[in-house]
Design a protein that fits this description.
Layout: H1 10-20, H2 29-32, E1 43-47, H3 51-60, E2 70-74, H4 102-112, H5 121-127, H6 135-143, H7 147-159, H8 164-187, H9 191-198
Parallel strand pairs: 1-2
Length: about 210
């Protein structure tokens, strides 16, 4: 599946099994109880790069008397530089971080968000922008909750009525609001709250 050979590190060879284990409910006795009467099927949301691990799991699970997990594929969130680039913690300009200041959010979008607009204003007005590659529009697809406004933005940008700078301004306002709300809520999180969420405990579900 992964093209490993005998010269590959044993950690790489062992990792697929580690990746598969959480899709088996009996891996969590502290949640489901020590005496689990039956295994429960697992739904795994993942991006396409994780697909080989769980296709492998689906193949092996019945042989081990486990139910096959089901997959729900999600889309990749693009880096600011576009779909062909990758977000990285080592590149602070590749993404918007939840610790960024309003100025940092503005500067990152204005300077680094890949544009689907044309070379000149005149050409953009005549031919319109490409929403499929424009990062500002792609981000709004995730973060703008008003679907009607999002559709209007798509139409305006595609027709050339809305310029790239104007589209970026809309995104900046949305991201600044979102990041600010997160930072305010984060201030309210105490160590006791963290311990409460991180402590393994049985869930109050009926199985």
């Amino acid at each position: 599946i992964f093209g490993f050979t005998e010269s590959d590190c044993i950690g790489k060879i062992a990792f697929p099994a580690i990746q598969a284990a959480p899709s088996v409910s009996s891996s969590f006795p502290f949640i489901f109880g020590e005496k689990l009467k039956q295994e429960f099927a697992c739904l795994i949301p993942c991006a396409i790069d994780q697909d080989p691990y769980f296709r492998m799991t689906r193949d092996v699970a019945p042989r081990l008397n486990f139910p096959k997990p089901a997959l729900m594929h999600s889309t990749f969130f693009p880096a600011l530089q576009g779909a062909k680039s990758k977000m990285a913690a080592s590149d602070t300009n590749s993404a918007i971080f939840l610790t960024d200041t309003p100025k940092q959010v503005k500067d990152k979008v204005n300077k680094h968000a890949f544009s689907g607009g044309k070379e000149t204003v005149e050409e953009h007005r005549a031919k319109g922008g490409d929403c499929d590659v424009d990062v500002s529009y792609q981000y709004l697809r995730y973060f703008m909750e008003d679907d009607e406004r999002l559709e209007q933005i798509r139409q305006d940008y595609s027709s050339g009525k809305l310029l790239t700078g104007e589209l970026k301004k809309i995104l900046i306002e949305v991201l600044q609001g979102l990041v600010a709300k997160h930072q305010e809520r984060r201030k309210e999180v105490t160590l006791d709250v963290v311990r409460q969420f991180m402590t393994p405990r049985q869930l109050n579900f009926r199985y």
